Predict the 3D structure of the following.
Amino acid sequence: MNLLDVVPTPAAVVDEARMLRNIARMQRHLDGHGVKLRPHVKTSKSVDVVRRQQAAGAEAITVSTLKEAEQFFAAGFTDILYAVCMAPGKLDRALALVEQGCRLQIITDSLQGAQAIVAGSQAARRPLTVLIEIDSDGDRSGIQPGDDLLLEVGRALHGGGCSLHGVMTHAGSSYECSTPAALLRVANQERDQCVLAAQRLRDAGLPCPVVSIGSTPTALSASGFTGVSEVRAGVYVFFDLVMAGIGVCSTDDIALSVLTTVIGHQRDKGWIICDAGWMALSGDRGTRSQATDQGYGIVCDASGSPMPGYVVSSANQEHGIILNRDTPLQQQLEQRFPVGSKLRVLPNHACATAAQYTEYCVLARDGGLQTWPRFSGW
Amino acid sequence: MNLLDVVPTPAAVVDEARMLRNIARMQRHLDGHGVKLRPHVKTSKSVDVVRRQQAAGAEAITVSTLKEAEQFFAAGFTDILYAVCMAPGKLDRALALVEQGCRLQIITDSLQGAQAIVAGSQAARRPLTVLIEIDSDGDRSGIQPGDDLLLEVGRALHGGGCSLHGVMTHAGSSYECSTPAALLRVANQERDQCVLAAQRLRDAGLPCPVVSIGSTPTALSASGFTGVSEVRAGVYVFFDLVMAGIGVCSTDDIALSVLTTVIGHQRDKGWIICDAGWMALSGDRGTRSQATDQGYGIVCDASGSPMPGYVVSSANQEHGIILNRDTPLQQQLEQRFPVGSKLRVLPNHACATAAQYTEYCVLARDGGLQTWPRFSGW
């Protein structure tokens, strides 16, 4: 008898013991480097999860939406970095949070953005706390450390009465690494480029108390954090197959899985049909570009042990097709995986898979089952 | 001044006039063929949308989850086909709906599934209404019409006291077509294989009143529906870029778009950064395998007119990178698309994109803005 036998499928299952191990590992790692951890809560969007990160030593948090900021502030979290460049139309919500006592930090990487922030801040007579986003690897947003725009934006914010709090960056290209050497290179570059930007601001007489960097792969790979105030990381709380492919965790560390029920077979093709399609797994195919493409996820038995070779090879809205990619024509599929039996799927990308659910079904440390709510939307 | 100026981003925008045109087109098409339309509500999961399909003439609906069945039954819809093979663990919920007066039809494609349905039905002393799923194109689930398993399953259900209501199929391979000839072939095959299965059941003395087939591409492509009772189709209500790539609609028919705000630029690369990442657009990359890969979606101006060449070329959780793929190095990006300006993105797959939202922001036929709730989950 398995605890999960009674859980309706599909469900997002969290193995609390694994999650706590992941939380402890990252906290211990950064504590050892003497740098603060600011977890990114976009992965779990769950107060129950983030309280455990907090209990391990992480006070401040990072968010990807103002809804996350609002929800976590309402739950008692006060030190919040909203790590997506501010849209002028969202300033009212940011100002409302500050008004209520939230120590919200926002970011920008443009003069237009800075000017809008200054205008909003002045109109509300409430200085906003702002970091400038730095482009440390050419992957997405941010100002390059050597670009004069950095100083222009800094002066616009500082001169406009905002609190210029520092610089931040995220080396998204770390997700494309697959060797420790490549990870080390990207991690050190992320750190060095952001520290360089901070130095340029300070050399120009502008304040820059904070240097905030990070991603799960770089947080675990940098040779050191000299000059860095804090490290942001999100997906480490659950880990996933993309992270395993990069090499910063093993599949045994993955704390999130999707519980699914077998609903049919195609004997001649060796297919097991289950009720976890892309709605339950997400459409994320992040392992497609890695050395081993894991399809829509690695299939485990109901206890969570990976079954060698079995992946969700294809997904429709509410159907997943499971196949053994090593030995496609498996014998006695119906006897081994009868209709009604349960399986679990390790996800490519925990942030995307978790986002398909309104709650986690938690295999709690105490041996029981718990339900932890999570939220979605903006 | 645009009506959408005040709408927080990202948002799922529905153009009601386009949607009504899509609804009318499919209804008229199938009315003309004298066959019943049973819309699949998994696309919208919105009572407001489906009431408009009902008003156009579609009484009965198709669902992909029991939650959809429960929600739509609570909203007054009584004739519901749950078109995913029944998991034994979900029989209680199906029986509860039947108990309350819902004319629920369920499906199976296996002897194990049929036996579980019979057992559940007998234990509850309530006959369930069951269709057998037919595999018409080797794409996913179902029993091949010539397989003796068809008769075994039919006998198990009929002999076990269930109401054997007929056969159903879905030619998912129609999504891989790109020419009218290929569509016609798949559509006629879907019909012929399902009609053949019905005939085999009837020849064996088993009841088979209903022959249910369909997908949006095949519904619009079959040469006729002789022998067919009803056609199921879902995504036509909004249409999307995958459907446009298949050739069954134009981009002007697409009634769903994602409203997004510009939050930055990378001038040297010609990138516009917006606040619609994969969380807002979904991770669906359904056009990747089509003749024209549309990235994460075609970019339109705020009024909904596609801007030639512009696509969301890359997406992170809350960031989209917009690029003109014809002329990547656009001049004066910041002047033409300032921070704070709004754009709209046509989605690859409307079912997946809509699923990321809890409501639709509707550009209503009457010229106003409306909010229509939608639901998610199982």
Remarks:
- The two ends of chain A are 40 Å apart (CA to CA).
